[in-house]
Design goal:
Number of strands: 8
Largest sheet: 5 strands, antiparallel
Strand content: 5-15%
Helix content: 55-70%
Structural class: alpha+beta
Order of helices and strands: HHHHHHHHHEEEEHEEHEEHH
Length: 380
Amino acid sequence: MENVLRPLIVIGGSVVLTLLIGWVTDLLLRKADEQFEHTSLWGLLRRGRVPYQLVLCAAMLRGSYDQARLLEKHRAGIGQTLTLVLIGATAWLMVRIAAAIVESSYARYARVHRDPARVRRVRTQVTLITRVVAAIVGVVAVAAMLLTFPAMRAAGASLLASAGILGIVAGVAAQSTLANLFAGLQIAFGDMVRIGDTVVVDGEWGTVEEITLTFLAVRTWDERRITMPVSYFTSKPFENWSRGGTQMTGIVYWHLDHSAPVELMREKLRDILRECAAWDGRDYGVAVTDATPNTLQVRALVTAKDADDIWTVRVTVREQMIRWLSEKHPYALPRVNTADAVLPPGSAASPNGSGDGARDGAEGVAATRRAHEPPRTGRG
């Protein structure tokens, strides 16, 4: 009877005690989260309740397993397994705690500061800090797991002795990876590009969606994802439309006839922008920027608070202005002139080409044509 009750009490007691401590801890964190509403730290710490209970259970079983006297032939293997589980769960819990602290700090910073650019910069930094901490904790946990094996402890001295040579070899082999790693840190703390920035890379316009230590993901306007190494942004030029502020100025061009009513277009542009919710009200204007023998190049300047709104304003202005011109001023649209040329002042020809000068010109053209025709032969 003792051989049955002892393992049941030891294992069952460890599990029940783990659940009880975990429930009490979660209850205390919930109460703290309700009491301290100005910080989200206590609520974020509740995400670590699973690794926390796993650490408690593994530690209790590891400490009391010898008293259970269960599967004594496999005691060493079970003890080793519990130790590995304890190390892994501890690393998992540390990552969750670090993430909770970093995220709560970012949330508090975002509430205090209203500058979107600074908030995105801090968000990028805390994201990369979380990833670095997770990577370091993971490496240390794996190393601790390996050192629990006697063979690995014996090989530790030789590994340390050859660490210099291995470091050089690893550095040469992972040169591109290390370059991306340091480039990721440079982006995070150099404020070159941030999560949420609008950028143009290789002719593609999009928004920075994710930044890691090795790659950067850009979401384009048509929902595609462009994944690029972070070293690209430290070695090549790119456009960052959000740096220093998200406000933008957009340009709309029209090619119109020389008779286009530019003053009326300025008034119509003002009316269009007043009805457009994406216009931020800062500025607008219409100007003739170029003239060709056939058309005028008319440019409209509009403003908006960010890249998405400036696109909406531009397409709205372009569409409604063309519709207004075609309905109210169709003569302003570009066309190919096929009418007779107007003769200079002082000519004998009348404007409709029916005067004596026109007849004389026609007779002269006919005479020149007859002079170049070959003589006719044969009977008439």
